[in-house]
Amino acid sequence: MKKMIVVGSGILGASAAYHLSRSAADVHVTLIDAKHPGRATDAAAGIICPWLSQRRNQAWYRLAKRGARYYAQLTEELHRLGEHDTGYARVGALSLHTDPAKIEQMRKRAEQRREDAPEIGEIEVLDNARVRELFPLLGEGYHAVRVSGAARVDGRALRDALISAARRNGAEVVEGAAVLEVERAERGEHAQLDKQERGGEFAATDAGGRVTGVIVDGRRLPADEVIVCAGAWAGELLRPLGVHFRVTYQKGQILHMQMPNERSSGRWPVVIPPTDQYLLSFEDGKMVVGATHENGVELSDTRVTAGGVHEVLSKGLALAPGLADGEPGEVRVGFRPFTPGFLPVIGRVPGWAGLITANGLGASGLTMGPFLGRQLAKLALGLEPDLPLDDYAVEKALGEG
Question: Where in the numbering of this chain does the FAD dependent oxidoreductase domain appear (predicted)?
Fold first, then answer.
């Protein structure tokens, strides 16, 4: 039996563990959960609608498109396994603008992209009256392109469903911070890379060997493959190997609200305004308004700040004045991880056998994460990925440091 360890239990790691546990191969899966405050998945309520994006990076779009398409298959599988609360609902999306010319550009973009992404569904242009009929809290003056195939997803609910299904299939979940254990190529010796050795003996020029498992609170867990899905914390985890993994992060504060007397809100579409904000509605009047985009902060700074709440709420009210009657509730904080070029990376870590990673999903984590988790499982099992991964090579996130 092969032993597989996944480090990091956000949406990416949970998906990798789930897909490994569903494999026909004889494998034992262990998912390591450090429960870092500020995990991106804990804070995320995501919009699954990549087709209207204006990003010109085609490699990013290919990945996002495949990620969005994969949701139908994945959620159907989870439902068959008894996981009915996936947090996913295909409610459509309204992409807003006040400029009719911009609306027409969005419509043309959606029509072009539907040629190879039929899951976009119906595309229609709506006037302000129809927009406010579909999402009554919105202000005057907005027109929209509506795409019926868009969806919303609660990151916590989907992650929990994936982990629950993996456990049903025999996966083990271990709580604690993992430290990589390696066998160095030079001497063939086992070594636990603890904090005292970082930046010392295992310098970048000496890196190389095999990752043989992890240590969690003194417990040694051997593995044939270790998959690192540690998000913003991946650089710290890989540094003792002499690997300078260039992952940065951005703090986001996201406001949850409760709207009285809006019991039908679970059927409302997600709202994509012309700014970097968003608005999602869930059942029984629950609203999610986001988000800040804060750079240059420390990973320890998980504070909810007055400035952050003010930014989110003021922009939210400008977009949807109807929110004024709502009751502010929890503010969630998460760190979105980015790799160079704002393009995710996935694959084996050069110089280290038995070590696979993926990272840099940024604000598209919930769109891409389940699909990329499936690709991680395929790589660990020696199977062919569902799309070529050359554009997302891990080498692109490595550098001197």
Answer: 4-379
Residue 348 near residue 394 (C-beta atoms within 8 A) = yes
Same fold, 2-41+158-247+341-397 and 248-338: no
pLDDT of amino acid 201: 36
Closest listed residue to residue 214, CA positions, set 33, 10, 351, 25: 33
User: pLDDT band for position 400 (50/70/90)?
Assistant: low
Return the pLDDT at 197.
41
Show the tokens assigned to 83.
Answer: 């996981």
What does the alpha-carbon distance between residue 120 and residue 116 come to, in Å, rounded to a whole number?
10
CATH of domain 248-338: 3.30.9.10
Q: Which amino acid is residue 18, in one-letter code?
A: Y
Residue 235 in contact with residue 248, Cβ under 8 Å? no
Beta-carbon contacts of residue 44 (< 8 Å; ≥ 6 apart) = 11, 155, 254, 334, 365, 366
pLDDT digits (tens, 9 = 90+) for 261-280: 888 999 999 999 998 889 99
Name 352's bridge partners.
Answer: 209
- Domain regions of the chain by residue span: 2-41+158-247+341-397, 93-143, 248-338
- Tokens 């195939």 sit on residue: 149
**Is pLDDT of 12 > 70?**
yes
In the chain, helix, strand, coil percent, each to 5? 40, 30, 35
> Where are the extended beta strands (E) located within 193-326?
209-216, 219-222, 225-228, 248-258, 270-272, 278-281, 286-290
Model confidence pTM above 0.85? yes
Going along 35-150, which residue ranges are E strands?
A: 45-48, 88-89, 93-97, 123-126, 143-147
- The alpha carbon dihedral of 124, 129, 133, 136 has a sign of positive
Contact 315, 171 (CB under 8 A): no
Place of tokens 């080498």: 395
User: Considering Cα of 77, then 389, then 373, then 146, what sign does the dihedral take?
Assistant: negative
Rounded Cα–Cα distance for residues 249 and 337 (Å): 4
Class of 2-41+158-247+341-397 in CATH: alpha beta
Question: Is there a cis peptide before residue 44, judged by omega within 30 degrees of 0?
Answer: no
